[in-house]
Design a protein that fits this description.
By secondary structure, this protein is an all-alpha fold. It is built from twelve helices and no strands.
Length: 253
């Protein structure tokens, strides 16, 4: 179990592990249930960083550094998947051609546009969150994104019959991952922010399901790129739901 947890850290972050720890494909494939745990760790680190930055920098500058931190902590792994997904899905090509475009390592114009839009959206959302609520929004942001990985793998099959990076994680695929992600989203959301956190968890879960079936409609299943896209887009949900709830007068957490 420890080895699988370390495998999740190695895959999802830039955190170096001792060379003596041999992470094989079996450990990597079994690491999927630990993805949300890694998300919580990243979120806690982001919240701590924001607390420190908030004492020395304006809110907008601290928000920019936090967005960069969340991007760098995974070496832009998921953002790369989002760019490839955008290039493929917005190409107006049939399924087979979409998969070919997504496999191309070069980033096209649609990929660049979507990256810029998502980063600007993240920055704008985070800057709008007041200091009192930033810690739990930052905690939930990467956590919700990593839960989206489990949800997408649980509800739709792998799209590439020839295999790919995602094949390793699909080797231990289980519908129980869906329940695990749901329970964690509800529990952490409630503990972090009560009713608002619960709304965030529900929204992240629902969005992940909807995105998964959209991906299935487009290409018949998920790939490593669409999993990255699911992570990045779901990370928008916590701040968005919080701001909508506040502007609507539903809560004042």
């Amino acid at each position: 179990m420890i080895k699988r947890f370390l495998a999740a850290i190695q895959f999802l972050t830039v955190c170096p592990l001792p060379a003596s720890i041999n992470i094989d494909e079996r450990a990597l494939g079994g690491s999927v249930p630990f993805f949300p745990v890694v998300g919580i760790i990243i979120g806690a680190a982001a919240a701590g960083l924001d607390y420190g930055l908030g004492h020395v920098l304006p809110l907008s500058v601290a928000s920019m550094l936090l967005v960069i931190f969340l991007l760098a902590v995974s070496c832009a792994l998921h953002m790369d998947g989002l760019a490839d997904t955008a290039d493929g899905f917005f190409s107006s090509r049939p399924r087979e051609r979409i998969l070919e475009i997504m496999r191309d390592s070069r980033v096209g114009p649609m990929g660049v546009i979507v990256i810029v839009c998502v980063l600007l959206f993240k920055l704008t959302l985070l800057t709008a969150v007041p200091p009192a609520s930033r810690w739990w929004v930052l905690l939930m942001t990467p956590f919700a994104g990593r839960c989206a990985l489990l949800i997408n793998m649980a509800v739709i099959p792998y799209a590439r019959p020839e295999g790919g990076l995602g094949t390793i994680f699909y080797s231990s695929r289980s519908r129980l991952q869906l329940a695990w992600a749901f329970v964690l989203l509800m529990a952490i959301g409630w503990l972090a922010a009560g009713p608002t956190g619960l709304a965030v968890g529900l929204a992240a879960f629902a969005f992940s399901i909807i995105f998964a079936f959209y991906v299935k409609y487009k290409i018949g299943g998920s790939t490593g790129d669409t999993l990255g896209a699911a992570c990045e887009l779901t990370e928008l949900i916590p701040a968005m739901v919080y701001l909508v709830s506040v502007s609507g007068g539903l809560t004042r957490i």
